């Protein structure tokens, strides 16, 4: 071994040893961090209910929150949006929510607790893509002239109305899922739990 190598190789070993110790230190440091999470934080990560303030959500607007790692849409349907629902009764596959894609208290014409507020999991029931909002009626957003507004799945073209009901003859087999939810106040929704604590 040359004199140079004695110095340089020694330094290299020192660097490797330090990095390894640093790696162990990082793992050791992580364990107390995880175990220091509050029970509520651990529960949330595992899918605890999510509380949402919808006070600022104007008629015609939609917001998205995350629950159990999934996007959940909340839509404040205006009168024009609500008026489209009865018109589509013959065009959608399950107009009366016969399939169990919502809690019983949402198995109604609007698939919701309050007629204007729609809560739905924003995941297509075909292969799990996230549908895009196409709220404007007509051809303005690339839909057909007779489009009344709703959602279009970009993956294989499934169409849904403002209640998350799938149109007939689409790849998606069922309506969008409505998660369990309840109102804590007029403007606060708890998603993931209903009055029975489901
Ligand atoms: S994933 Fe939506 S239509 Fe296929």
List the helices and strands and how they pair.
Layout: H1 3-35, H2 39-45, E1 50-53, E2 62-67, E3 70-76, H3 79-87, E4 117-121, E5 132-134, E6 150-152, E7 159-160, E8 181-183, E9 188-191
Antiparallel strand pairs: 1-9, 2-3, 3-4, 5-6, 6-7, 8-9
This protein binds FE2/S2 (inorganic) cluster.
Structure description:
It is a single chain. The chain is of the alpha+beta class and 198 residues long. It folds into two domains: 3-36; 50-191, Rieske Iron-sulfur Protein, CATH 2.102.10.10. Helix content is 25%, strand content 19%. A hairpin with a 4-residue loop joins strand 8 (181-183) and strand 9. The longest helix is centred in the first third of the chain and has 33 residues, at 3-35. Residues 1-36 have low confidence and may be disordered.
Write a compact overview of the structure shown.
With 198 residues, the protein is of the alpha+beta class.
Low-confidence blocks of residues? 1-36
Percent of residues in β-strands: 15-25%
Number of folding domains?
A: 2
Helix content: 10-25%
* Mass-distribution shape: globular
CATH class label of the largest domain:
Mainly Beta
- Would you tell me which CATH topology of the largest domain applies? Rieske Iron-sulfur Protein
CATH superfamily of the largest domain: Rieske [2Fe-2S] iron-sulphur domain
DSSP strand count: 9
> How far apart lie the N and C ends?
72 Å
Spell out which ligands are present: FE2/S2 (inorganic) cluster
Radius of gyration: 25 Å
Number of alpha- plus pi-helical segments: 3
